[in-house]
């Protein structure tokens, strides 16, 4: 280990230190091996994760997301050296800072920063993988929102993977913070404004996790019989648009477009039937109830 | 000249950084480098592409790390420093862009190991020019070359952000 | 109070009879009878054939359970059966018998979530108080923790269950299904030496196994490796994934206990790896043996009786089966909020 290092956190997979490094202070994140894993697997996995974390971290920093600057990757010792960011963890801010607990303006301002940062992260197809309020900071010098800990990050363009990021963040907000619902709505609002392809992510969020938030049920059918039913996250007019098309439709094969209104409807989708688990039901035929 | 210690490799010796302006014998130095003259056991870097000493220290740290693990891509730890400064893996291009050219007049020198006094006096006999304060080399930086070589978006104007991207590019090079 | 439990969500038909002392809370297992539908090597069990198997054997198994337990029909308080999740046809074949007996014997009936059965039985047998639960079987792979009257799912498989992965792997290698493919993989793995890299997919607290199966055919043909080596590498890979997500859940909620349930939970290598992980965290692993790990009727009786004691009864007209039935849908009335 580097000279004069101070352990600040012992996690399940890594130890985090601070240490003086080439005239600055660095965060030193050292992944350790796991006794339960086969040595070959352990070595490959650790190396792969160190590389993946370093890549995701740097890709974010380079694309204008405020994240710790990458200093040095020691593949041989499974250690990443990065910038030590001076600032406050968002979780602490929302729990202990009275200004953030009481002032809606402050909350909205923070939510806006979070929404924009997330949009930028997803725009370059990075999935953070552990998006809690403990992994977001406000930089002391310029109050910029810093995304930290890319230990579980990976690259993917799938809307469902991005939706999981949002879902994890939502859970983190709902479980720990005051006015979390308003704040999370504000986050999504800014996320949507900043990220062009946010629609697919948000509809995935509604589809997969819709039961936990305000949802519009959109139904489609003929002669009073529901053929298609979909749950959507209530966000904007798109839902209304979709439901209008659906309710005026007469045919089973109605395709409903629910993308952004401005662009060409290149992607149309059959609304997926939701919530109909197969029910098996059969009567015990031929058995009479016998009085005893 | 400034002298530093690598926290990770304190026994490898100090890192010395000097800066020379108004250099007149760059062509001669370059010839001797190409001939692998053992007397020139230094990294000679074109000051145009150096923004901060931190950038040099990161490249030097990487070079010493490579040397220690027998991972050097170039001849020695000094050429490795020049190579490391570049974000690409093309050795010729890296040395051409970040090393000195015949017309260089501002030169940054990095030396791994050795006694500070000896390094200083040896350099003054090698280089025909004026030694200047290390803090001054940011005056001779050519931002457009930096942006081009490190592929930095034109929207980025903040020097600190630029430096973050530069050191990140150097660090990520050994990962891919 | 005495309950009889009917389980048949997959290829095991199990009937169990359990007694809870209403004063002391002591649990007494009176009978735990099982009959397994075993198919030839290289084949899996099909829903239809499995249902036929269950129908053929259920009456003798019920009779045997009653005989073993020495319980009179009049002493039974409640009939419990597996409502889901599982394969449709086998579930229905067993549920019909449970309902028929409820009508014949004039007893209340309780539909039980199969996963809750595993969890409650595991807690009862091992004495684990509030563990992170790793539920691993042919149909399920979940990391679960309790909070506020629900067993909440922290991580799960994104595609197939780990047991399903092992079964299909065994089929590709043409291993015997007797007593179970997983058991034979475990025995083969003990003789394996060489580690062959297989796809390792963990996303946060979720895992994915399908990549392994699509890879195995090519690996089998390309590399010179024995079935033993393949079994060994398979176990090392998939179990490492499971231990990793369990550790994440433990770190996340700050728990020091792990309970492994479900058919794959009898695997000693998995238990050993889990123990190594937990040791680093200063915690404790709880696991059960094959009597309770593998699907059985007693766990259904136990979980059903816990619910029944809080006043829960499934109305006869709603005593249906469902193939999908998530663990967190069940309101756990019998435990404290935390």
What does the model show?
- The complex is a heterotrimer of chains A (292), B (176) and C (338).
- Helices cover 39% and strands 22% of the residues of chain A.
- Residues 211-292 of chain A have low confidence and may be disordered.
- Chain A folds into 3 domains: 6-83, Phosphorylase Kinase, domain 1 (2-Layer Sandwich), CATH 3.30.200.20; 87-209, Orthogonal Bundle (Transferase(Phosphotransferase), domain 1); 214-278, no CATH class.
- Chain A is of the alpha+beta class.
- Chain A contains 8 helices and 13 strands.
- By secondary structure, chain B is of the alpha+beta class.
- Chain B has a single domain (2-173), classed as 2-Layer Sandwich (PF0523-like).
- Helices cover 43% and strands 13% of the residues of chain B.
- In chain B, strands 1, 2, 3, 4 and 5 form a 5-stranded antiparallel beta sheet that branches.
- In chain B, helix 2 crosses helix 3 (77-85) and helix 2 packs parallel to helix 7 (159-173).
- The longest helix of chain B is centred in the middle third of the chain and has 16 residues, at 53-68.
- Chain B is globular, with a radius of gyration of 15 Å.
- Chain B starts with a strand and ends with a helix.
- Chain C is of the alpha/beta class and 338 residues long.
- Chain C has 2 domains: 2-119 and 294-329, ATPase, nucleotide binding domain (Nucleotidyltransferase, domain 5), CATH 3.30.420; 129-292, Nucleotidyltransferase, domain 5, CATH 3.30.420.40.
- In chain C, the strands form 3 sheets. A 5-stranded mixed beta sheet of chain C has the order 3-2-1-4-5, sandwiched between helices. Chain C has a 5-stranded mixed beta sheet with strand order 8-7-6-11-12, sandwiched between helices. A two-stranded antiparallel ribbon of chain C has the order 9-10.
- In chain C, strand 11 (257-261), helix 8 (268-280) and strand 12 form a beta-alpha-beta unit.
- In chain C, helix 1 (47-69) runs parallel beside helix 2 and helix 4 packs across helix 5.
- The longest helix of chain C has 27 residues, at 227-253.
- The model of chain C has no long low-confidence stretch (mean pLDDT 92).
- Chains in contact: A-B, A-C.
- The interface between A and C is medium-sized, with 29 and 38 residues.
